[in-house]
Inverse folding.
């Protein structure tokens, strides 16, 4: 058992790594647990592109000294803030280089149990180590919250998977695949499967497919006034507010924040996959799944259209590209003593302006915090906000250790 540390960061993706550099510069005694960029490596298919532009795919150190553009230039890679999509492999390598550059000592272990103690929290890891921390920041990403509709969830694992289960798509090459959903992950996987000779059918409730508009390289002055650049999220005053001022979003009533979250930056594919989808993938739109069953080693999905007409779609495998639903009850490492202290609305944690839940000293960032701070927390670009906020707030209530700034910012 180790001594008590000030802060434990659980998760080593963009949010965890960005926060680590800020805490290091602030002299906060922290440890960060997780494999750098693991979710991006293990749960996204090779060959895909990020939906976010280059300008909105940065990790954040306090001095903003190592952007994706810096990494690309140093490694001879093509880069443009809006005109070139970002390759997944480039982003993963950039994140790991960021970790190495700022000497973030990540610990590749998994949290299995978290209990409250009189002086903070006791964290038990899968390697048998127990760590005591005054505060815990859960930068756990989206994977714990993956959602498969009940009408599909009963199917055997051999016949159904979630879009976040990939990884390599090679085992589905040349097969018939049904994808339920119409967001970026659905279209990305459909396009990649098409390149591998698969016959793909997409089932979606929307009456038409949605894709991002290609970026305008030379917008008019009027367009810039009406639709100002929104911190890499797109254009428009609402997106500008969401991207730049999540603390103002936090001040809004819950019903209004929820409306913004549900109706802003909704499901859509990247503009760069449109030509790989339209006319090349079978699409059954304005349809809802009403049932699914195994049939001779294959899977048969029953759908009904808005006009009430039903039909079946048969394939070798179904991929549920049905997104994520935050629910703290699904965080199996939270023991009852901690879980009971976390007040929620619709099972989503209620957070203070400091990303702190009603369990004192337990902070949620990333997707977990989107209902409190808006849709920017679903994207990499949102990582800057909790990093800056927590690095200012936490030192006021924690013991500090003297760390030269030069040690946190290698040349």
């Amino acid at each position: 058992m180790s001594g008590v540390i000030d802060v434990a960061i659980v998760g080593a993706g963009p949010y965890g790594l960005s926060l680590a550099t800020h805490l290091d510069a602030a002299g906060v005694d922290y440890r960060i647990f997780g494999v750098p960029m693991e979710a991006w490596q293990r749960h996204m298919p090779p060959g895909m592109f990020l939906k976010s532009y280059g300008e909105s795919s940065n990790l954040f150190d306090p001095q903003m000294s190592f952007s994706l553009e810096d990494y690309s230039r140093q490694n001879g890679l093509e880069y443009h803030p809006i005109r070139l999509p970002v390759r997944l492999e480039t982003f993963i390598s950039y994140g790991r280089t960021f970790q190495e550059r700022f000497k973030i000592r990540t610990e590749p272990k998994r949290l299995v149990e978290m209990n409250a103690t009189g002086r903070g929290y006791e964290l038990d890891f899968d390697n048998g180590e127990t760590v005591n921390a005054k505060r815990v920041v859960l930068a756990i990403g989206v994977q714990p919250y993956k959602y498969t509709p009940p009408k599909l969830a009963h199917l055997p694992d051999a016949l159904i998977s979630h879009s976040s289960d990939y990884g390599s798509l090679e085992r589905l090459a040349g097969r018939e695949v049904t994808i339920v959903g119409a967001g970026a992950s659905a279209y990305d996987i459909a396009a990649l499967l098409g390149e591998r000779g698969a016959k793909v059918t997409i089932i979606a409730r929307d009456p038409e497919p949605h894709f991002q508009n290609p970026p305008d390289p030379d917008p008019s002055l009027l367009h810039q006034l009406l639709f100002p650049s929104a911190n890499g999220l797109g254009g428009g005053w609402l997106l500008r507010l969401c991207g730049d001022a999540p603390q103002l979003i936090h001040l809004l009533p819950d019903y209004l924040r929820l409306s913004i979250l549900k109706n802003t930056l909704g499901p859509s594919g990247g503009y760069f996959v449109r030509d790989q989808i339209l006319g090349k993938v079978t699409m059954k739109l304005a349809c809802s799944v009403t049932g699914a069953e195994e049939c001779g080693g294959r899977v048969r999905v029953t759908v009904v259209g808005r006009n009430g007409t039903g039909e079946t779609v048969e394939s070798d495998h179904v991929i549920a590209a049905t997104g994520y639903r935050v629910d703290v009850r699904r965080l199996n490492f939270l023991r009852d003593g901690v879980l009971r202290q976390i007040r929620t609305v619709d099972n989503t944690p209620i957070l203070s302006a400091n990303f702190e839940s009603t369990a004192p000293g337990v902070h949620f960032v990333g997707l977990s915090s989107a209902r409190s701070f808006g849709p920017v927390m679903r994207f990499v670009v949102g990582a800057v906000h909790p990093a800056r906020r927590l690095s200012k707030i936490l030192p006021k209530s924690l013991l500090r250790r003297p760390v030269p700034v030069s040690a946190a910012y290698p040349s």
